[in-house]
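Progress report, Aim 2. The chain analyzed during this reporting quarter is listed below.
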Amino acid sequence: MPPAKKKADEKKPSKRIVQTVSTTPDMVEAVQSQEGQHAALFGPLPQEALAKGEKYSKAKELEALQASINKAFKGGAVIRQGSELTNVFMLRRPTGVTSLDLKIGGGIPAGGLTQIIGRFSAGKSYLTNCIMAQAQKNYGEEFAGAACMTEQRYDKHFAKWRCGLRVALSEDEITVLRKINADNGNADFTPEQVAWLKDQVGTFNEVVGATAEQILEVACQLVESNLFQIVLIDSFGALLTKAEAEAEEGLDQKHRGGAAMVVTQFMHRLHAALNLPDKYGRPNMTSVIGINQYRDNVGRDAQWNPMKVAGGHALAHGKLLDIHVEQGARIKHPIAKNEVVIVGKEINWEILKGKAGCHDGPKGTYKFYFGEHGFGFGVDIYSDLLIAGLETAVVQQAGSWFKFQGDMLGQGEAAVAYKLHSEPELMQKIRKEIFKVAGLNFITRENI
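Predicted structure tokens for the chain:
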């Protein structure tokens, strides 16, 4: 029979080496001081670098390190102390839609990328034009905006007539419009109308290029200049890479992931442009807006999202704010018995990603009219303001009556909308009070 195994507790314990260190009263006294603690743990401090009688100061060492790094890299790498940091995200560019501005911290943040995504005809271009129009109102002649177009050309007629962006028409465009008026038997433009057609506030630029690399390179240079409040990229989903443009096989040639790779390189360059100060040492205050579309996720299984967004993971991680918009219910208006006409639609929005003072999750709806009803084309800013006012308790409702600070606004939404339309000062006052109650009055932003 084999010998029985010894029990674990019967094993001979292994030898352990114990090293003792004797201490002296001088060592104990040294450890009680900051210098002594450092010396006991890491060795003696470099006393030779200190002047006679000068004590070691970590603050002075940090200041010297900061100056050395900034001098060595000449602005290519910048180190600052906490008191020197500028929180550029506190500067917001309003959208003009009060309920949306309320949830994103007062508007889209400066110094970062905001993406507006959705399916076709969801109001993405309209919303971006409204953001630029609001910035134009707030900055006046100091306004500078740019649209980097990868998808068709920028429609400044739509922006001017429908979105309120004051962009000048050329003499050739005005001549064409005059000919259309004459052909239709209408009167020629008055001098006031011609002045409105030529009216422009600030500067506006369009960027077009043959490939995605060219357009995104120009977009990076615009951001690096720190001269623009808004830089629009329309859109990430329509980027044509250089490899696709030069493919000899034509439309059958497959370049999987090519656009995502270009966008990844663009995001790396964009982060550097937004993080570093400009040549005058000022922080970058550019708000970059990217439009993107949903695509069918063909290769998905039952657990995957049926829709995907072009641009790759770098775009998904690098953006500060992600606003999803989509069409909702149609707005119908009765014109006769058993007969209605569609005058607008509801636009549902949702924050899918939020940084810089906001978070993902909030949802909302605003009304969008085609111009046949209400106060013209675009967002019903009056009913939207009423929704935000009720949510923050700035506006109170009693039955069908609405009041603000004890004064009656009217009976029914239509009456309130007409009063706000006729008194823009009152509307501005309510809007500012909504932001104040929401705790957003500390944010440094333009006029809201």
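The longest strand covers residues 321-336. The chain has a mean pLDDT of 85. These observations will guide the mutagenesis work planned for the next reporting period.
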